[in-house]
Amino acid sequence: MYYLGIDVAKKSHRTVILDREGEKLGKSFSFDNSKEGMELLLLEVKKRKIPTKEILIGMEATGNYWENLYTFLTNKQFKIILLNPYQVSKFRQALGKKAKTDDIDALVIAGLLRSNEYRASYVPPENIEDLRELTKLRYEFMKDQKNYKRQAMSLLNLVFPEYSKTVIKNPFAIASMKILTEYPTAKHLAQVKQKKIEKMVRSIKGNTFDIKDIKYLLSVARKSIYSGRCKEVRGMNLRMILTHIQRFEDSIKAIDEQINVILSPSVDDHRLGGNLFTIPGVGPKTIAAFLSIAGEDGSVFDTVTQITGHIGFFPQIYESGEKRKDNKISKRGPKYIRWALYIAAVSSIRHNRELRHLYHTKCSQGKAPKQTLVYVAKKLSHIMLSMLKSGENYRPERVFQPV
Q: Quick one: which of 14, 232, 241, 348 has the fewest CB in 10 Å?
């Protein structure tokens, strides 16, 4: 068997080939991250007269630089092992390699393959990869939208401090957004006629603003304590912030629709992660996020301990001599899955009888509410993994004592 280690990068990749005895087979070489470069790699392998079936190729899961090369080599019938960078780093330390160069990295990867001590990273099928891309982007959009909402609230508290007493007390409702985008400060609202607001909100479906509400809104705006200082600039800022919030809202809605399409039953009536929908309190967004790391059948993780470690739902313990720090959650894994499970835990204590009982039990034992929610989220991840592996619907009697 021959072992080909590839150190992937944005512009070009570095490659080392080891023979059965661990000796380099010729000099290391580089090839561009392009179709021509990939063809050059095949030519170099052919020059060394190595049969396709007798070569094992390894590369790190570095960013997304590996994906196109991985797909190209897989289509050429090569066996590819995708390695976790953390695993490669630890192997480099074990070999005593203090320097870090492209040549050394490629050599370490090839050596790790030859040692047979590697653990291959999960390469999801396309539908699971779709869910991963969507849920990660959704998390980032939600985070950015939340940040913009904080900025909007801060600015609104200055330019219209009394807004919370009026019909626009929720500034991010559809009608409120429309009014504030047009008239962003109390000074702007104070100058507008009642009929303009009536005409504006009447076109909004589901709007509940009546004439009395609008009159009161304008009356409060006219009596506002806002000084009018920097009215135009602050008004422009608020308009732009609200526009960004609306764009994020539209994008998140589009992502949710695409997630629902992927999770919908196919022609053979098989719904991706279908049995997870039987868990009270768990919805499509949580299921999509969970499938993105666990796979369609949960085969990515052998045990619940592994998935707990991957998500980061475990305490960091620090003890040295007489010094000891409070244990805190590690947060080592993907943020988007921790966030999705945490939100699902909040929903579950409202809609899931067993998890609500677990939550109150742990709180009565002295755990803080947020700590307990993390505990419920971890329990939920264990339940979901078990259900994916078994294919069974939610059966609380398998996990919980009768409540």
A: 232
Cα–chain-centroid distance for residue 195?
45
The predicted pLDDT at position 26 comes to: 86
pLDDT tens digits along 288-335: 999 999 999 998 899 999 898 888 887 765 555 565 555 667 667 789
- List, as own/partner pairs, every contact residues 135-139 make where C-beta atoms lie below 8 angstroms and the sequence separation is at least 24, other chains included: 135/259, 135/285, 135/288, 135/289, 135/292, 135/336, 135/337, 135/340, 136/292, 136/334, 136/336, 137/255, 138/252, 138/255, 138/256, 138/259, 138/285, 138/336, 139/335, 139/336, 139/339, 139/340
Q: Which of 180, 161, 316 is nearest to 246 (CA)?
A: 180
Task: State how far the Cα of 31 lies from the Cα of 34, in Å rounded to an integer.
Answer: 8
> Nearest CA to 27 among 37, 39, 18?
18
Residue 55 φ/ψ, nearest 5 degrees: -125, 135
Question: Using an 8 Å Cβ cutoff, are 214 and 198 in contact?
Answer: yes
Q: What is d(CA 44, CA 67) in angstroms, rounded to the nearest whole number?
A: 21
Average confidence score pLDDT of the chain? 90
Q: pLDDT tens, 310-323? A: 888 877 655 555 65
